[in-house]
Amino acid sequence: xxxxxxxxxxxxADPSRVVVRPFHLAWQSNGGAPSRTERLVREVLEMNPHQxxxxxxxxxxxxxxxxxxxxxxxxxxxxxxxxxLGLDGAAIGDEKxxxxxxxxxxxxSYAAAALMNPSVVPHFDQTGMPEGSxxxxxxxxxxxxxxxxxxxxxxxxxxxxxxxxxxxxPPFATATDAAGADGxxxxxxxxTVFRHRDSTLSGTVIFPITTAQSKGLExxxxxxxTHDDGRVEWVGTYTAYNGSAIQSEMLRTTDFRxxxxxxxxxxxxxxKGMALFPRKVGGExxxxxxxxxxxxxxxxxxxxxxxxxGAMLLTPEYPWELVQIGxxxxxxxxxEGWLLLTHGVxxxxxxxxxxxxxxxxxxxxxxxxxxEPILAAADQDREGYVxxxxxxxxxxxxxxxxxxxxxxxxxxxxxxxxPISALLGAM
Length: 427
Hints:
The chain is mainly beta and about 425 residues long. Helices cover about 15% and strands about 40% of the residues.
């Protein structure tokens, strides 16, 4: 095992982190009778002003201090309901509108079960950073009620002295919104979601919104991508899960205000764990993927969102990875070549992290490979929601080190600084 610096900071699941989510009732009528939605709205409209005021005050007493701009959230949800039922808002007072909205919302603890599988990229704002420091942006897989996964973010700073400082989480978390979503039916295909104008990234959560994502957005692998013309965007591949089937999708953003969630096409997109190179190589987009559940493949495309079958790149070779291998995020460009962090699964389904060096001009050529893991589950790191697992969705180069956030036992997130020279020397 390499002599790496493990930072003492850990991030854990936190059931107190909650957001307000739409609560859905049946919209269709039953044999001509009013639907549950229509019945509930009618009950509120028939309340006298005193009753409506008392009920709203009770709701606000319980929840206003736990959420950001709670009244506005209720009004926004009312607008969704009113648009579907053709309600005349001018004839309904503010308090009844807020109360109707409250009946169609619920509180969701998005990271109650687990916080895991992070990836990290350079932050889009590096102003004011002293020499040797970098502002970073980390994505995390948060798992809540019903084992539904969403994407959470955390901002921070790393230094050349192996220091890590995370920005504090705001007291309120907010979920992204999709323009035009009315809550009646899940959309399909590509969709754009928006961070609220007053919400920080460290308080923003991206929830599943389409039919294909309905049970989870899993394991986002973010990369800072540079196009041939110099344009940059942040691109992340992730797994969309609907409870029975998976497909690979892509998150794209230039400002972390608007996020395009785009299904990928092609035969390779039926698999999970795809990782995009941070630029074109030889005029082609390149992706690392595991098409057969066991080996790693190098996939080429002339279209960033369409991926067909690739060529075998790596097969399990050492005891700690004999069950299967996969990537731990996008390849990292070094002077010596492309550093690809990998995960291997060995006996007793123990997950470990290793590394491979690929040729810079022809990444199909493997220049080196760690014979032993650089990180493995040990001691207290073995215990958790899924024991004996360490896993990352992407590290970043900073000076002479790789900064690597990683998941521990699908329960928490830890951080390591890995010297590049030691990494290459182990190959």
